[in-house]
Amino acid sequence: MHEPSSSEQTLHNQFPLFEPSLIHEIEMVGERRTYEAGATLMRKGQFIRSTMLVLSGLVKVYREDEEGNEFLMYYLHPGEACALSMVCAARQDPSPVMARTVSETEVMLVPVEVMAQWVHQYKSWYQFVIETYRARFDELLSTLDDVAFRSMDERLEFYLKRAKEAEHTNKIEISHQQIATELNTSREVVSRLLKKMEQRGTLKLHRNAIEILKL
């Protein structure tokens, strides 16, 4: 009987529903990589040859236009994978999105060649892929609702709540310009709305950081 290694145990801790034999295969064919905060993991137009399983840290997946404006799509936490990278890798399509680490992040890169095989071979992998697609679809619907049906002040509040939950902290290190870029508005609008929220006691503004008090 195969005795799991310490690295396989790490995989099991983040992906507890995977069969031991699947975890062993992931460890055998996958490639572990650690990235510093702010590292680009996926670029628009890049052809994806593997999908990434997040072992630790936090990854932001977003769209970027020709002028460098960003639009946040969703975050990837430990125990999750990028659905779009799975689709692009399987179909050999270029990536339509960008991915960047928010904090130091460790991922396991899984080659596209084995992913289709595992869908038929391992029930847990099939369920994981389906759940990954469903979770990302739900998040995208939430983001679409935010853009289509909310005012800018509501969008800003929704943005800050997501950042707080994703980073597990009440103090988010980010500039007003970064928020404006991701919400596709001006820095002046963001600064004005943040100041109003500070006056209401919702948050406290610091230099390049926002401390959330009541959201």
Report on this model:
- The chain has 215 residues and is of the alpha+beta class.
- It has 8 helices and 10 strands.
- Helix 1 packs across helix 2 (20-29) and helix 7 packs across helix 8.
- The model has no long low-confidence stretch (mean pLDDT 89).
Number of domains: 2
Helix content: 40-55%
Counted by DSSP, the helix tally is 8
Structural class: alpha+beta
**Strand percent estimate:** 15-25%
Taken from the alpha-carbon principal axes, the silhouette is elongated
Q: Please trace the helix and strand order, writing H or E for each element.
A: HHEEEEEHEEHHHEHHEE
Unreliable segments of 5+ consecutive residues: none
Count of β-strands: 10
Question: What fold name stands as the CATH topology of the largest domain?
Answer: Jelly Rolls
What is the CA-CA span between the terminal residues? 51 Å
CATH level-1 class of the largest domain: Mainly Beta
Average pLDDT:
89
Sheet with the most strands, sense and barrel status: 4 strands, antiparallel
CATH superfamily of the largest domain: Jelly Rolls
Q: Give the CATH architecture of the largest domain.
A: Sandwich
Task: Provide the descriptors you would attach to this structure in a database record.
single chain, 215 residues, alpha+beta, Jelly Rolls, 2 domains, four-stranded antiparallel sheet, three-stranded antiparallel sheet, 8 helices, 10 strands, elongated
Brief account:
Helix 4 (112-121) packs across helix 5. It contains eight helices and ten strands.
